[in-house]
């Protein structure tokens, strides 16, 4: 059934009979981007009101694994002996995230080290610890991790590789809560007004110049208007749970995969932005993820499609890998290992099925129903390359090269419909480097800012993602929007 | 079988025993981009040598339908009464082609009117005639056509719609030859040296600074080196026929669709660029095309996926439509019409199969195996929208809205595996607005230019394409590269 996307109608100020309240700045949503925006706007002298749908702050950020992608020589990187700088970080982002907004990427790269210091000054806890292996998540408080494609070719040639995943010192899968707690406490300590169980359901916008001047709020049992003298910052999270938007932009996923998010990731931010004439971009950007690691040794296996061909370097970020699997015929792919690297995937979310074990590659090829000779040839070429330490086809890092020649052999089915993929959407409202919402002509809509997962930031495709690129840029652009709306300079 | 992409190795000058010939500028390929590059370099005072693989000039440009996407108020647009200008053209490109290189797009938009005059001054024939309908090709010499998404939502709101397809006054499917003929004659008349049946098989590149200083040429029975004092312009066409690149970047297409190109579109240009350290971008950009029109009345039908849902405005450019079909589950789609708009597709390349006719929508839904109630609901919603002249879901232009309510009903299968899709690749070597090849860091490689379909120009995805965006920007950036390599200013 065609489900219409329920885009709220903007309301004209003339149709607002009564403003229940008036402040300088309204921040819709109290995840990491909204919280940072509120803090900066407040500290720049603006009277701020946070309007949050849940019964408390935190949002999806608090339920995330708590990784901030940061670099440029942060205190943690320095402590771990990594020589990173703004130029290297920018070079990596420009090379790996193309297409992206270069202005936003350069601004983030230049300010990144200082932004880390700011986060730490708010009380966000980061240890001076480092994990050297390839991991998706760590069940301890270790901070610095390799979370992207820094060491994958060709990015390792574009920029000096450095680990840039900064995990807050919290435990478990929802370590993000340890990062949100001090930020929320700061808001309260500084007396920033917040109302909870309160949803922004429409923007109020002048007809003449398109200026956004307020919002309509729904609370259980009543609705009312709040006027914003300076502007509205939309920080409502992603559209991961918005079925019409997903069906429209990512129809392949609706049949095979599950969204990873919270119920309020229903696209309210994107929909509010669209209602005021902002433009949405990169809405087909997605991270479909079912990592083949840990354990890291599985990366020494190869991944083939139903033609028996490799199609990606196996050592790339798992989101990039998932994007490539998504593009294969039938979204079908197998992870092939020999007995020396065989192990069961440890990630409880991945659920890759062990198809079978075979004594020879020929038997495996037949068992998987691959074209005659295809897998034999792929493995012959790969093994020869691995033996001399150079993957000529995809340049997998020499660290992960080992001829797969010690039988028996095994295959895991990592196809979209056989494994268990989770997806996280990218894309959203088009914004500039200060978080201002842009229309189709790239003109800023007066009084409207969109930050965090409601906006299209860095990067715009899942092939380019690295863990931490939501909390990292989200917190940074939140801060910039907060200062800008309050009329304060940046930097 | 994993087929390795045979990237030529660059050769070091020290390893060149003998330079058979030396000129200022070598142009590899004599399609529209190479021809325009050679003319400009020659006229700026450089000694030029064209090296062309075929036995004569023209390339895929001469076999194309001969449409140049041009605007900004060309003489033809003015004659037809269309008020276009550089600003409107830029606005359209920036809105519809995102992501793209904004510098290249703005340069093209600003110079576009003058570029038309230049083409005409070379003898490229353009009539002062205009076709008002929606067409893919015209079997006559009519010039001005609507070939893109100018009238489709939201682009019609981003820029004042204007027709910008400028078809050369040639007949038939290969009208492009009528445009290439005068350009080739100019080259000959002005004494620009050219060798045919001659392929550039490798670049000669200094190790120290990466400067490209010559090429290795293969002729039947022999190979030799040519030195370029100023630089090499690679204009070798697309990688449409390059199986390894297609399998790597567009695996879905290898099973269902056919490349549209000439045998020498084997990616030589991309491969030469890669060999010298240039970066390739947008390699998954593609136009999969099997237009549902002509006749235009078929656009009044709706297109649904196997969930019985619409997913795109049916009046968009057929390449955009094809891209959306490509993303549907199973690449499956049906064109649904009622008896008032029923017609057989006229495009002989499309080969959409008529599935059947049915008395009622319910029977059609069952006949197509769509989920119960899905098509009934989709058509109920669409028909209500069409009746009031507003397609709320996808904003199909009111011109094409008609309730589909006069049975019997019919469906054409326009799925990738049931219809006959042809594809044209986009993407290629990353370049700047003067055609200089860029590396991963966006630094120019000295002495190397890449233009035409060997480069990633405007646009980079098939969703953004308009007919004529190969010959239009290809000829323009060819000219700019020609002047730049010769040391001449632009404009």
From TrEMBL, chains A, B:
Pfam family membership, one: FAD_binding_2
Co-factor requirement: FAD
Gene3D superfamilies membership: FAD/NAD(P)-binding domain, Succinate dehydrogenase/fumarate reductase flavoprotein, catalytic domain
Keywords, alphabetical: FAD, Flavoprotein, Oxidoreductase, Plasmid
UniProt superkingdom: Bacteria
Sequence ranges assigned to domain FAD-dependent oxidoreductase 2 FAD-binding in this UniProt record: 24-456
Coiled-coil intervals, chain numbering: none
MF (Gene Ontology): oxidoreductase activity
Gene Ontology biological-process entries: steroid metabolic process
InterPro entries recorded: FAD-dep_OxRdtase_2_FAD-bd, FAD-oxidoreductase_2, FAD/NAD-bd_sf, Succ_DH/fumarate_Rdtase_cat_sf
Keyword Iron: no
NCBIfam families, per database record: PRK07121.1-3
PANTHER family listed in its UniProt record: 3-OXOSTEROID 1-DEHYDROGENASE, FUMARATE REDUCTASE
Protein name: Fumarate reductase/succinate dehydrogenase flavoprotein domain protein
């Amino acid at each position: 059934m065609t489900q219409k996307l329920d885009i709220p109608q903007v309301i004209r100020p003339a149709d607002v009979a009564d403003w229940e309240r008036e402040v300088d700045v309204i921040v819709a949503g109290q995840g990491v981007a909204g919280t940072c925006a509120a803090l900066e706007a407040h500290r720049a002298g603006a009277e701020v009101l946070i309007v949050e749908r849940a019964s408390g702050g935190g949002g999806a950020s608090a339920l995330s694994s708590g990784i901030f992608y940061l670099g440029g020589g942060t205190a943690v990187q320095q402590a771990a002996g990594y020589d990173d700088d703004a130029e290297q970080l920018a070079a990596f982002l420009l090379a790996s995230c193309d297409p992206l907004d270069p202005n936003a990427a350069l601004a983030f790269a230049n300010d990144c080290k200082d932004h880390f210091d700011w986060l730490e000054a708010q009380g966000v806890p980061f240890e001076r610890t480092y994990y050297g292996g390839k991991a998706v998540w760590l069940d301890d408080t270790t901070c610095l991790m390799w979370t992207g494609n820094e060491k994958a070719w060709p990015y390792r040639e574009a920029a000096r590789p450095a680990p840039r995943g900064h995990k807050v010192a919290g435990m478990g899968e929802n370590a993000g809560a340890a990062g949100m707690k001090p930020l929320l406490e700061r808001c309260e300590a500084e007396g920033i007004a917040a109302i909870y169980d309160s949803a922004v359901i429409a923007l109020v916008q002048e007809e003449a110049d398109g200026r956004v001047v307020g919002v309509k709020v729904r609370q259980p049992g009543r609705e009312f208007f709040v006027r914003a003298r300076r502007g509205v910052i939309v920080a409502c999270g992603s559209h991961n749970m918005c079925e019409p938007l997903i069906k429209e932009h990512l129809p392949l996923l609706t049949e095979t995969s599950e969204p990873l998010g919270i119920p309020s990731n229903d696209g309210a931010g994107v929909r509010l932005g669209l209602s005021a004439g902002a433009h949405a971009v990169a809405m087909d950007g997605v991270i479909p993820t079912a990592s083949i690691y840990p354990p890291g040794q599985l990366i020494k296996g190869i991944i083939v499609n139903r033609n028996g061909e490799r199609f990606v370097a196996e050592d790339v970020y798992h989101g990039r890998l998932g994007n490539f699997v998504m593009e294969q015929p039938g979204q079908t792919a197998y992870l092939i290992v020999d007995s020396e690297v065989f192990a069961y995937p440890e990630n409880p979310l991945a659920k890759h099925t062990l198809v079978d074990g075979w004594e020879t590659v020929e038997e495996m090829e037949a068992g998987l129903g691959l074209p005659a000779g295809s897998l034999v040839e792929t493995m012959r070429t790969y093994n020869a390359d691995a033996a001399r330490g150079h993957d000529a086809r995809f340049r997998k890092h020499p660290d992960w090269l080992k001829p797969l020649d010690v039988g028996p052999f095994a295959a895991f089915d990592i196809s979209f419909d056989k494994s268990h993929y989770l997806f996280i959407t990218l894309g959203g409202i088009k914004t500039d480097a200060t978080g201002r919402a842009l229309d189709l002509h790239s003109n800023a809509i007066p009084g409207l800012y969109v930050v965090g997962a409601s906006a299209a930031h860095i990067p715009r495709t899942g092939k380019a993602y690295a863990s931490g690129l939501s909390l990292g840029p989200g917190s940074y652009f939140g801060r910039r929007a907060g200062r800008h709306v309050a009329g304060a300079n940046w930097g």
